[in-house]
Amino acid sequence: MKNAVRLIFVSWLLALGSSLSAQTNLRLSEPLMLPVLKGQYNPSQFYSGQPNSSKAAIKQNLLTQTSSDSLLQYLFGLNQFKNRNSGSDTLAVSNGIGAARNWALAQFNKMKQYNPAFITGFFQFDKMICNMNTHKNVLGILPGTDTSQKGFILIEAHYDSRCESSCDTACEARGMEDNGSGVALVLELARVLSKHTFQRTLVFMLTTAEEQGLDGANAFAVYAKTNALPIRAVLNNDVIGGIICGKTASPPGCPGENEIDSLQVRIFSSGANYSMPKGLARYTKLSFEEELLAEMSVKTNIQIMNAEDRIGRGGDHIPFRQQGYAAIRFTSANEHGDANATAPGYLDRQHSTRDVLGKDLNGDGIFDSLFVSTSYLKRNVQINGITTAMLAIGPQDPPEFELINDGNGLSVKLTNPQAKYAYRIGFRGRGNTFDTIFTLQNQADLKTYHVKKDSFYFVSVATMDAAGTESLFSMEKYVKVAGVPATGVLEKDAISNKMQLLPVSPNPIDETLTLSVYMPNPKPGFTGRLIITDLQGRIVKSLTIALDKTINEVVFEHGFSTKGLYFCSLFVAEEKMDMQRLWFK
Ligand SMILES: [Zn+2]
Question: Pick from 122, 116, 115, 120: which is nearest to 97 by CA?
Fold first, then answer.
């Protein structure tokens, strides 16, 4: 299993490496697109003064108009093309990637009936991939009504598919879980949201050549950076509709073959404390839990994962993060296989001819049971939808703030707060989610006494408008509260002139852990080592960590099987500076 994982990692890295060099001739097929993406257009070109949709109206539509039947029709639509390999036929009308992308463009064109402002077309690039030189992402763009609101929201999924061999264009590569499910989600979300108008622009994109090295996403991310396109957030959906575990899929997300989980979805994103991707992941979870969850008949739990992707795997959010954008990946809790399809005895569906829509049990040509759960997929459309909507209608970013531990409590002081807004203050301790959020109505300094002795807090701020919609949260600031809160009064801040390991809580559903070191006086080029040992004192892992920032992080890939008590020690040169316990339940 370990070797298999490593093999995929190496081959994926090679694929990624080759992809980063070479897409050329990046271009949009529709001249209107670039000015809209840049935010340099006159909204009256598209809209004649109609009001922006209210949050209530958007929520209502997400809840009532998102449709399992519609998702199923999109999956049937994709299924007919038999093979969507990036090197497959581009001329045939009934099979191959050319037919598939023309079909996808036709689906986007249908959105114009709901909203004449909707712009459709291709983003093209050249690179020899599987003997094919020109490749196309499919785009649907809903221009925003207010160009002073900078940044568009990009919702993406790759539409190409593959069999065991990455350039096999003759096999049946229906790619229903990977990634017909993501395509159906993007199309359904475009269908539901295009009935509205938003301040900020929405971009729906179906990418190609993900399977050969994230080429379609990388080409667009490079194009975005080159043209200074303001992307507020990237939501990538890949393997998002299956609920059944394969034999090789990783536990405990997949506790065993044929286990089913339709109640959880994972978000992968890079970094931790100072990372905008993790901030976007938290914003997604918060938006869904505050705005939509209570009104849903089946509850979904969003799991924020530590790592940027499953160990050794990658996806289309990564090229965007590499270009400096906040990007996250949604993936179902259970996957049917680990994609190592050439391993002996691999019988799971992912990256094989078996990734089909379902089973025809009685031979009548109709699927009797589906491998992609359209009800699960529908909930994931709604999660993407509420996040997209909040990002598109939310107010401007928060002002700068100062964090003061003055001995009476923890205060947040905003620079130039505006009277028309409230502000939300998010406190986070050891975990990936907020511990507490306070809403600051009158811009008075926030005092809180709900802080624990000797605790570390990460604090961030969001602007909130009168409808209760918040902006993205700021980057986090860090504070250590040293005092005793028993009487509600804190001791003077005792932070620290001392470098230290921040406490962490391993999460049983995660295979990685982000270890962080606080440096009071960071120095360029300074490094240390983290040594992880078991109860017997044996070294389990030794990691180099750069210590050139105030908070420094390194990802520890422990895998799912690690259990019990471990110790993580920080060494600089030969000197042990600090130690933390790691308790794997
Ligand atoms: Zn995929």
Answer: 122
